[in-house]
Amino acid sequence: MEIERLLESTNLLYSELLQQCWRAVPTGHGISFVTKKLKGKTYWYIQNTIGNQKTQYYLGVDSPELRKKIDAEKRLWNDAKPELKKRQKLVAMLSSAGDAVSINNSEARILELMERIGVFLVGGVLVGSHAFKLYSNMLGVRWQSEAARTFDIDVAKDYRFTVAIKNQKVDLKTALLESGMGMLEIPALNRKNPSTSFSIRGKQLNVDILTPMIGRTSENPIELKALKTYATPLRFLDFLLEDVQSAIVVAKAGILVNIPTPARYALHKLVISQRRPSAMHTKARKDILQAEQILSILIEDRPGDILLALEAVQSQPEKFRKQLRKGIEKLNSDLQAQFKREILEDISWW
């Protein structure tokens, strides 16, 4: 499969933006200090505004010491402005002068919202075709457009693990519904179950919340306490969430998210392609196409990544391995032969 490479200048700009976004800066975006007067006394609150939602946290009674702390925080916000402008310029360079893959404004607003409220800090992972889009900039290649097309933003979190971040309260459902973007809950098929999906009124864009299905098969939504919402359980999703890395969405001032490692994503897509019913043939073909493109670049540039992902396959159930073998047989003949020759040849357990 012929690989279309991004410009080397694009790769360098992306690396610089990623390094900068690893450093958290106090932006003050959507945050303000407000006062309330009660019985002759003045009380200070910090107000966090997300869309139409305003949340206030009590700071204390007005005093010179408290006002000094507030002024110091405001200075930090002001000092951070040059850093944010630099990141915004890098995004602009990647989007215009470079040939980086970007996303539309609605998608960017949703992902920026998730980053801001801490979804990715507490272990949320962007999966599905939006993750596939981000591999393009990460690996320095351009995908075939039909393989990256999607109307869903899929966010996954393992319900078994809760990452505790001090002073970090994540309420994803409320943030989405009160974002000011016209988000609505999509009712579950069983009206007794809570919703696990959201959509923007009048637009073809959904947000789906997912979690691994462990143990007995069940379609009942699972509560994600870390995100204060519910998720749809999916079999073998744990394989993706066991090994994730940071990636940058080329939008706004750069949006830092978590995505699965590319090799695991590709192998997982081969498995999922074999689990889809015949009525979803088009999606199954898209799964194979995404896997083919990722594996093509990894075999050439990073074969060790595939070997590490295959090591992790050993701990998966036999059904996973069986469906992976079937998925490999669906790869185009040239790639399939190369994969077996260069990757599988020395793997004894396979």
| Global mean pLDDT | 90
Number of strands: 14
Percent in helix: 40-55%
Approximate shape: globular
* Secondary-structure element pattern, one letter each: EHEEEHHEHEHEHEEEEEHEEHHHHH
Largest sheet: 7 strands, mixed
Report how far the terminal alpha carbons are from each other: 24 Å
Oligomer: single chain
Classify the beta-strand content into a percent band.
15-25%
Quick summary of this structure?
The protein contains twelve helices and 14 strands. With 350 residues, the protein is an alpha+beta fold.
Structure commentary:
The chain is an alpha+beta fold and 350 residues long. Among the domains are: 65 residues, no CATH class; 90 residues, no CATH class. It contains twelve helices and 14 strands. Strand 9 and strand 10 form a beta hairpin. Helix 8 runs antiparallel to helix 9 and helix 8 packs across helix 10. The longest helix has 32 residues. It is globular. It starts with a strand and ends in a 6-residue tail after the last helix. The mean pLDDT is 90.
How would the blueprint of this fold be written?
Blueprint: E1 4-5, H1 8-21, E2 31-38, E3 41-50, E4 53-61, H2 64-95, H3 105-117, E5 125-127, H4 129-139, E6 141-142, H5 145-148, E7 152-156, H6 172-177, E8 183-186, E9 197-200, E10 206-213, E11 222-224, E12 229-235, H7 237-241, E13 244-249, E14 255-260, H8 262-275, H9 281-301, H10 303-313, H11 318-328, H12 333-344
Parallel strand pairs: 7-10, 10-12
Antiparallel strand pairs: 1-6, 2-3, 3-4, 5-7, 8-9, 9-10, 11-12, 13-14
